[in-house]
Specification:
By secondary structure, the protein is α+β, with helices and mostly antiparallel strands. The chain contains 41 helices and 35 strands. A hairpin with a 4-residue loop joins β34 and β35. The longest helix has about 45 residues.
């Protein structure tokens, strides 16, 4: 091999290269930005338009509709979702994954510009904001500031911190919540206005003309050039009082005569508390790609300085610190890497001795250091995906080195010198090593093209593994041979025949397999079929991502529209008090670190256009103690809190765990689409009642918000026209009087405060006072509001959601204690338009009583059809029909006698009943004359039971079943959808289906790529097909693990694990068959070549498999050694996430290794001989076919 030979001849150059790799790798590792999850660019653009004080219906018609019309023509749009709520229009545009987000942002901005002329004038002045949604921009740190000082002092400290933190490199934005905002308010006395015959409109025009700072240009005089300006901005609030408003009877009227100027705070829009103490919350967001750890260090330095300067009573608490989470995660994964490394080296020492193992082990640090340098060059961060990828690759990093070093030592034992042995040993296995690396990388290549958010999240795994494995191949080809040529021993080791009982036993097993080839292969295939059947019947379900113990819990509160913030604040305090008992477990061990309350804002990290704020919204964020300090799992604490808050009056409560990974939606998401909100409301409410008692369904809620009560001013248009007042003037006048209007800015150094005009609170809360207000008309006079119309109470719409221009109401829920897919199946069953089709355990009130009723007599008063149902379901008729007389009948008797039923017994009995209910051949038309069925169904039944569809039959049977067993079967209403209403399912299931479809395609593409590489290497199709059987048979191990450990099939983790196996398991088969064919080329008999290759490659095969398996054990079990505290860690937070993938690879590779050593030689011999026979039948001689089977023998 030219490359390795050149390296061996230039040792000094290679040693310098090693030093460079170490230096660059260490520098890259130290400087790589750290973050918990990868930066993921979601293909969403959000358009937000503010129009304060406007109802949701008007927001929808005047803003949302106009902008959506323009957006419809955009290319690459997957879905347009919008939310119209009071004062705000929010439109979310979701693009297909292949659309560049920067192009999408530009396109949306262009379309919004086209829609601007059609928007209200006030909106045109403010302009809609268009921005992309970036997961990385959500808070990485949250700070709580509290203390026994005035609100003004506390706000000043928060503002100073905000300015200081914004200057930290990498910080994108700082948000302050819970602080009081200063405002200069002009409160106009309506009685004095009337006395002076003035209107609010005159003051609105006055303030902007007086509060100005005008630059008048330059003036050159007397040889000097001066800048001329008119600095007339207000410096003191009191100065505003002296403004002259008008003149009456020759006397000036000043603002102080008709209004009071107040330096005060705005109406409270939010509250914040930490552990029950009033506080201000400061949230820090980072820029994309910024190092969270560096930002955190900068923020903590600022906090330390703030603590020194602030009053002693002021407290600063970090309630959220992602850098701490990252530090714990990195430490956890580093411990797993180091523990795996030690285990790998221990295995190498055990099999190869100290000298060989140290040469081989060099591949691990050098490959990783090379990978760090490449990752930094690509601009990647060090996150949990990258770190796990290194763990996954850890055991494989030594595979190439093992094969090469082992072969070098074999040549040394054959009598070659160190240098010559290194050259010959490396050259002999160079192409198999390259091919095995290529096949492993090929398995991961399809994963790099995973579309969507999930792909952006998971792409770091295939890229990191590919980089690391390629680095390990370069180390094995360039550096390991050089080191081996310098330090390999010259002593001859004992040959395979004397290597102990294990080799002897393997030889006996291999001889038996080669002698009974067909039996060996048939048993393997039968095992695969049996395990697949067993998995299909006894599996533990399917889920998208593994469930894990959360670091945080959230309690989201939503009151009715119209609820004021003071009431919501009081209710939030009650909820926080209900959470306090869970701060410690029954043994007194602390479970909760802190609880942060935010009133007026939602705690959801990604609302995607939902109302994230408002006086009726509140949130509690519960931070749990660190994972290694938890006695009670935080998931259990969340469950207990949910139970305690189940019946909070007057507010909707959602208690949920923090979710890890990319956003996937809720376990259950049901959408009702149509045009009429009343219709959608009725349909969604009925659905809610039908599914609310589905087992393990929690956090069921609707996004349909009750309408805020409206007070409408109905304009008498004819009268208003006579008085010279138009409707717009009336609307703007009321807005200024009630809500207030901004008329200017009051500047104090770098801070800006609003100057607003508004009526006094005691004059804007009474309708009679409002009606006495005077509205300016077109001739400069003023008329009473009462002469222009009247106020009427009327219901309005709450928040209006739309998808692709159709109004939508969405029901969402989570699953707890059961897989989300199973809960969703139950929900879909309940919401069938033809009614629930099957009988489930939850529909039986008392299962033991039901089984006793099955064996009892029919009720005389039952209808004919109901009696027929009873007769059909009664043992032994039911079970005889099914051909399972003894089994099911005995189960029914056991349950009836025991008085209780296990889950397996329930499934067996209900399965039998449902199969009978679906049969079409039990009824006659006359059976249904007195049946408790609706007229429509009776008419259908008149045609004959067999003429009905399966669902119609099951619906009829279900109703008859309820009649046959009164009081035992829960009645389920039919979900009737109006003609103009559609139902769609979305959420986690949608993402799960997409991920499943992609991974299946990726697996097929990976197989084709691997086969293509193998065909290129072996120049035949039969050998690659033999090697690929190990991939198929490796799934025996995966499914055995899932059954034995009762683990669900995690689509992302287990699916990626199986694809990873496709690349890993072929490596040993490649080396084994390559050596077998090499022996054949040297003239060895086929059977003896297969036997000798197996014996010779036994140790490398076992070593490569053992190192990969052992390196994943810490991650799979969660047991590792903490090298920072020098203690054992018996639990690992990261293993919750990655254990399913680790176990899949461990079991799959273990089974595949055994099959490689036994089944592959047998299959190779059988197919080769079969090929020879076929060719012999075609007229070729045995000698000719031997030459055709493998290339001619090499010259010795």
């Amino acid at each position: 091999m030219i490359l390795s030979d050149t390296a061996i001849r230039n040792r000094v150059t290679i040693l310098v290269l090693v030093v460079l790799i170490i230096a660059m790798g260490l520098y890259s590792y130290i400087t790589l930005p750290r973050e918990s999850a990868p930066d993921v660019k979601v293909p969403y653009i959000i358009v937000e338009t503010s129009y304060e004080g406007v109802s949701p219906e008007d927001i929808e018609s005047q803003i949302t509709n106009e902008i959506e019309k323009e957006l419809l023509g955009l290319r690459g749009v997957k879905e347009i979702r919008s939310t119209s709520l009071e004062g705000l229009s929010s439109i979310l545009v979701e693009f297909h994954p292949d659309v560049d987000i920067n192009d999408a942002l530009r396109w949306v901005k262009d379309k919004v510009d086209l829609a601007k002329p059609d928007l209200p004038n006030d909106v045109q002045r403010k302009e809609p904001t268009v921005s992309e949604i970036n997961i990385a921009e959500f808070p990485i740190m949250t700070l709580s500031i509290s203390g026994d000082v005035s609100p003004v002092v506390l706000k000043g400290i928060a503002d100073a911190l905000e300015d200081a933190i914004k200057a930290v490199p990498g910080v994108l934005d700082v948000e302050v919540l819970g602080a009081l905002e200063r405002e200069i308010r002009i409160e106009v006395d309506p009685d004095r206005l009337a006395a002076y015959s003035l209107t609010v409109d005159e003051i609105l025009r006055l303030i902007p003309t007086e509060n100005v700072n005008v630059s008048a240009g330059g003036l050159e005089t007397e040889g000097m050039k001066f800048h001329v300006r008119v600095p007339a901005e207000f410096k003191e609030p009191e100065k505003i009082n002296n403004l002259k408003v008008a003149t009456r009877d020759g006397k000036p009227i000043y603002l102080s005569d008709i209004a009071q100027v107040r330096d005060m705070f705005k109406d409270r829009a939010s509250y914040a508390r930490m552990d029950g103490v009033e506080s201000i919350t400061v949230s820090v967001k980072k820029r994309v790609g910024a190092n969270i750890v560096d930002i955190a260090q900068g923020v903590k330095a600022i906090l330390a300085e703030a603590r020194r300067q602030a009053p002693a009573t002021v407290k600063f608490e970090l309630t959220l610190d992602r850098s701490k989470d990252i530090d714990l995660m990195v430490r956890d994964l580093e411990n797993n890497i180091l523990s795996g490394l030690i285990l790998v080296v221990a295995v190498l020492v055990l099999f190869m001795g100290w000298r060989s193992s140290m040469i081989v082990a060099l591949a691990i640090p050098l490959s990783m250091l090379m990978s760090f340098a490449v990752l930094q060059a690509l601009g990647y961060t060090l996150n949990m995906i990258v770190l796990f990828s290194l763990i996954l690759a850890l055991g494989m990093l030594v595979d190439n080195a093992i094969v090469i070093v082992e072969n070098i030592y074999r040549h040394v034992e054959m009598g070659y010198g160190r240098v010559e042995a290194a050259m010959k040993g490396t050259a002999e296995v160079a192409w198999p090593v390259i091919a095995s690396t290529a096949t492993t990388v090929a398995a991961f290549v399809p994963l790099m093209f995973w579309p969507g958010i999930m792909g952006d999240f998971m792409k770091y795994l295939p890229i990191t593994v590919s980089i690391t494995l390629t680095s390990s191949m370069l180390v094995a080809m360039l550096i390991n041979p050089v080191v081996a040529s310098m330090f390999s021993g010259g002593t001859k080791r004992k040959g395979p025949a004397h290597q102990g009982w294990f080799v002897t036993r393997y030889r006996d097993v291999l001889d038996a397999a080669l002698s009974h080839r067909f039996t060996t292969i048939a048993v393997s295939a039968l095992t695969l079929v049996c395990i697949l059947i067993a998995f299909g019947k006894f599996h533990s379900g399917v889920e998208l991502f593994p469930d894990s113990d959360p670091r945080h819990g959230m309690v989201n509160l939503r009151g009715p529209q119209g609820m004021n913030i003071r009431d919501m604040n009081a209710l939030t305090k009650q909820v926080a008090a209900a959470v306090n008992p869970f701060r410690a477990d029954p043994t007194g061990e602390k479970t909760i670190d802190n609880v942060v309350e935010n009133v007026g804002t939602s705690g959801s990290t990604m609302n995607f256009g939902d109302s994230a704020s408002g006086p009726h919204i509140a949130n509690l964020t519960i931070a749990f103690v660190d994972f290694d300090k938890r006695i009670t799992p935080s998931a259990e604490t969340v469950k207990s809190i949910r139970a305690a808050l189940r019946d909070v009056p007057g507010v909707e409560v959602k208690v949920e765990k923090e979710k890890h990974g990319p956003p996937t939606g809720d376990a259950v998401t049901v959408r009702f689409l149509g045009e009429d909100m009343r219709t959608l409301e009725r349909a969604s409410e009925k659905a809610r009642k039908l599914i609310e008692d589905v087992p393990n369904l929690v956090n069921l809620r609707s996004d349909l918000e009750a309408a805020r009560p409206e007070l409408r001013f109905e304009v008498d248009r004819e009268r208003a026209k006579q008085l010279g007042v138009n409707t717009q003037v009336i609307g703007n006048f009321l807005k200024t009087s009630i809500f207030g209007s901004k008329v200017g800015t009051f500047r104090v150094f770098a801070d800006d405060y609003d100057i607003t005009i508004r009526m006094p609170e005691d004059r804007r809360t009474n309708i009679e006072d409002l009606l006495r207000l005077r509205v300016p008309n077109s001739v400069g006079a003023a008329v009473p509001l009462s002469s222009l119309g009247r106020f009427v109470y009327a219901p309005g719409l709450g928040t209006i959601h739309r998808i692709d221009q159709k109004r939508v109401v969405t029901l969402t829920a989570d699953a707890e204690g059961r897989l989300g897919t199973e809960v969703l199946q139950d929900v879909q069953e309940r919401l069938r338009p033809e009614g629930q089709a099957t009988l489930r355990a939850v529909d039986v009130r008392d299962f033991a009583a039901f089984c006793r009723a099955l064996e009892a007599g029919a009720r005389p008063e039952a209808s004919t059809a109901a009696k027929r149902v009873w007769d059909l379901l009664r043992p032994p008729r039911l079970f005889g029909l099914l051909g399972r007389n003894e089994s099911v009948a005995e189960t029914v008797r056991q349950v009836a006698q025991a008085g209780k039923a296990e889950n397996d017994s329930q499934r067996e009995i209900l399965g039998a009943i449902n199969r009978v209910l679906a049969r079409p051949d039990f009824y006659r038309a006359e059976d249904f004359r007195d049946a408790p069925l609706d007229d429509e169904l009776k008419r259908d039944l008149a045609r004959g039971f067999s003429a009905l569809s399966k669902n119609e039959r099951m619906r009829a049977n279900r109703l008859l079943l309820e009649a046959a067993f009164p009081g035992q079967i829960v009645h389920r209403e039919r979900m009737e959808l109006p003609a103009d209403c559609q139902i769609r399912y979305a959420g986690e299931k949608e993402e799960q289906d997409k991920a499943q479809a992609f991974l299946l395609k990726a697996f097929v593409v990976a197989i084709l790529l691997i086969v293509g590489i193998l065909v290129t290497q072996f120049n035949t199709l039969s050998v690659p097909l033999i090697i690929m059987t190990t991939v198929i048979l490796s799934t025996i191990g995966v499914f055995t693990e899932l059954l034995a450990m009762r683990m669900p099939f995690v689509i992302i983790m287990t699916g990626v694990g199986i694809i990873s196996l496709a690349g890993v398991v072929v490596n040993n088969a490649i080396v084994l068959l390559d050596y077998t064919r090499r022996l054949q080329r040297k003239g060895m008999d086929l059977l003896e070549a297969a036997r000798t290759a197996g014996m010779t490659r036994l140790r490398p095969v076992l070593l490569t498999a053992a190192t990969t398996i052992i390196s994943l054990v810490p991650m799979a079990t969660g047991i590792s050694f903490d090298f920072r505290t020098m203690s054992w860690a018996l639990r690992s937070e990261s293993s919750q996430w990655w254990a399913s993938m680790a176990w899949a690879v461990i079991f799959g590779l273990a089974f595949a290794t055994v099959l490689t050593l036994v089944v592959v030689p047998s299959l190779y011999v059988m197919l080769t001989r079969a090929t020879l026979r076929v060719r012999g039948w075609l007229g070729a001689t045995h000698e000719q076919e031997s030459e055709a089977a493998v290339p001619a023998p090499e010259a010795n």
